[in-house]
Design goal:
The chain is mostly beta strands and about 625 residues long. The protein is about 10% helix and about 50% strand. Keywords: Signal.
Amino acid sequence: MRKNYCLIFSGVFSVLFSSSFLLANAQELEVENNQQSITQTEGTEETEGTPSTEVAPTDEAAPTVTNLIVSPQFHLNHNSSGGGFDGFTSVEGFIPLDQTPGRNVTYFNGRVNLDNDANLGSNVIFGHRVYVLESGRIYGGYVAWDVRDTGSETFHQLGVGFESLGDNWDWRVNGYLPIGDTRRGDSSDGPQITGVNFQDNALLLDVLDFRDFQAALGGIDAEVGTKLAEFDNGGELRAFGGAYYLDGEGTDGAIGGRLRLEVNPVDYLTLGAGVQSDEIFGTNILLQARLSFPSSGVRNRSDESASNSLYTRVADPIARNHAIVIDHQVAGGLQTGIVAVDPATGNAYVIRHVDPTSGNAANAGTAEAPVDTVANAVPLANSGDIVYVQAGNAGGGFTIPDGVQVLSIGPVQTVTTQFGDAQLPLSGSGSLPTIDSGNIILGNNTTLSGFSITNAPGNAISGTDITNVTIEENQIDGALGAGVALENVGGTVQIENNQLNNSVFDTGIFVTTGGNVVQQLVIVGNVITGNAEQGILVRATDSAQVTTTIQNNTATGNNIADPAKTGIEVEANNTASGNLCLDLNGNTSDTGYLLTLFPDGQFQVVGQVELSANNTGTVSLADISGTTEFSNVTSCS
């Protein structure tokens, strides 16, 4: 559509300009020839039968236009808001660059615009106007460069126009061509997930994706006006009517109509009111006020006012859109049922459903046909899948396959999708499904979250010689062995926000790492009570490289089987090639803390001198190495 209005304007402008230019030059040439003829016959006696060469004046009241010169003139304008622009105030200067008195003027017209939101704009215009005495009309053309700052974007536009001004009627055509990047998106929050649902084994998203755009619209406008009244003081009332066409990226283009009145109650004041309507911006009321200094831009050589001459209009301000028209557009909308994708793998999420209340062992594990226990769901799962469990008795123990997450509706469960994080439906209910009298064995890259694990016949949760596990938001009670027991688990190990109570013969959390394992161990926010041994026991052996963060845990009432032990113990029983770095901070232990450095061990402690101040309970350091010592560091790097 942009090409269409450019072609339309080019054709209309070319025809109007060429025909009017030829007419104006023909009339000027005729005037020059007549004046030359008059000059040749001056002082010669007219003979009988010889036709007179005197040119009768067309307006007896008109002054001698060759005595009229154009001087600089300045205007203070205000325009109300209209279709595609805010109201703005502007300062304008009309400066003649070259002129033939009473005949033509080449001018510069500059404006600075300040809209209602304090955003700046400007217009730079160069034009030429010619007064044709024989026809009593002024013809002109101009080129313009327009700039508008919307507050978030800056747009540029080329403008051209042609006009004809007369004593009784006027007409003009203006064209506008935005250049550069004419459509730009405002900042936005991006797609918003508004709904999450299950269908079969898929996770479906409802996504609201609105983005605001600003588009600079170009086009053409044309109008014809006539003088309705003339006042005794020389003021005038004129009426104008015309049509315009707007188009730009993101629109289908629109034709509109405009009517306006313009009155000069006094020679230095112009007031205007109008109405325009189109399918893009609807109907808008247009108001304008202009103060001019001096009141007229044309004077006699004797510096007297020449306000009664048509030639004074050669300094009139240009009637055009001085603000680039901006269409505020909204793209996008609500899309429903989009399959959620894991951006880390590029694969769609697959959810295996477990409902202990309504499920059946023979079901397919879909949202519509869940299985009854976790043990019946995990054989259906592949790496990357999620086993999602409703409240109830979810069966006995199970082994989590590599790459599988086993999550319940109890905690808030979120997954990362192509549109951001999405909370799984029903999660955050606080209802933890129960795993009774069974052991849970972790695989590589696995997660266990949101279960009540009771009466495990051994270690409740365990993993050996694997990598990357997460254990969070679980309640573990009455295990015969440890609540959590991990051996030689590498990579990132997160044990967070669990409750571990009443292990009959062992610790709440036990992590031992040896061999060549590199481990990032995070034990944070756990509540550990009533266990036979320590609340937390961490041990690094051999050449293991272990970085351990133990923060904000509460260990009370532990060490029932051996009151001589402490609530939280960390041991560096490694070799010279191994290392243990510990950040112990914000914990509470009613039986204190013990950090033990065995022979040849490497043990770094963050903020060693502040340990007792940063934790509740006594921190003891036992250096039985004989060859090395604790190393105080500011951080584990």
